[in-house]
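Deviation from plan, reported transparently: zinc ion complex.
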Amino acid sequence: MPNYNPEISLSGISANMDEGSEINPCFDGKILDTNPEDHPNIADATSQDGKTTVSINGNNVRIKSIDGKIGNYSVRVWAGDNLCGKGNVILAGTIEDLLDVGGVLEDNEQHLRQSGVVRVYDGKMDPVTQRNKKLGEIIADATGQFNTRLNYRIGNLADSILVQGRKIENGTEKSYVRTIKIPRGDVRGLTLRVVPYDGLAENGITKEDFRRHMGEVLTGDNTNGKGIIDALNLNPIMYKWDFENNSSYPFKEIIISKTPKNPNIQAFFSQTTAENIKARILDKEDIGAWFNGKVNNPNQIRVVNNYIIDYNSTADYGRMVIYPEINQYLGFFLDIYPEDGYINFGETFVIVNEKGEIIPGALTHEFGHSSGMGTNMAGSHALTLPQEKTIMVPYLINLNYSTPRFADKKTAKIIYEDSYKHGQGNMMKNNLIGLYYIVGMKFIDE
Ligand SMILES: [Zn+2]
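Because the crystal trials were delayed, the predicted structure below was used instead.
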């Protein structure tokens, strides 16, 4: 009888495992040899692709997945020796990708790392509980870092996952809950910026009232103080000018037209008034605060004798014009391409006296509308907070308030936070960013 090499049976052996784990299949009774005098054992095993480290112990083959390696893999298993001959087989399986979630928790006002809690949910709502299943909770340490592997196979999750975060210090909640939607898959290097409660208590504003205020000023559904119970429930879109080239028509410039848009009106900005408006826009503590200081290049603010903005011309997209007026105060923006959520035009009209002077606070208020408070022509006003806290009240009585107030600056820092981008990380139509996902009060499972 000739010498036959041993054969290895894979019957009953599964090589599937989870990322970062190991298997230890036993080949006792699975090594077959036609020669009755041969009793071969497992002799060797080698990874075919570098995805695993492999070792043998008797007839056991220990296969340990290397961190970060996923997908199909294979190991060649040898049995026998020089006497009875050698045989081998390819053991193939899959390393399942588990959900890794990691990044840093920061606040949106100073971009400092913060301690807190991050929770991860399946993106699909359970039809029975009407909740998104919680996949895990991660602590962000004092350096703001969070990083863990959750025991869920990515392939079994919905198309997306939801990540929520909140700043917590010594057991006390210090921020609103930020929610971000991410396509299913490992999350690494996520910067999760939360809106801190900083300054609210000092200014006598409850966290509930501040978020209500934001809902009011971001909602065009303004019913003169009668209708809005909690505008945040409408999840208003945060319209904003594009200062980061996220869209086709980013911010271009602000033009101060010294003469009216309507040629039949006798009104003008004096040169001093025009230059003063420009200086105030460049001052990030003054009306420059409406853009969180992002209009900081003097070349982006032009004082001209007259400028007529053309809504039909893409050349004018990204421009805001400020005009003198005799009859009305008005500030608004237009979003010609609502699918991207970014503002395309803005106009601000302020009443001047016969010397070409304006009331400073009136400009501040109208400029606020043009910066993003008021959905497409419908000026939105503050109904909850008083004028000491916001200049966006429907009627300014105290004309000594010339600069944006505390709530206005806090609001603008949220709208013009770089990481709050349209088109990513949200659950609305076209993925536009909504207020609900920035100043949430609770985690999904609370
Ligand atoms: Zn107004």
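The two ends are 74 Å apart (CA to CA). We consider this an acceptable substitute for the interim report.
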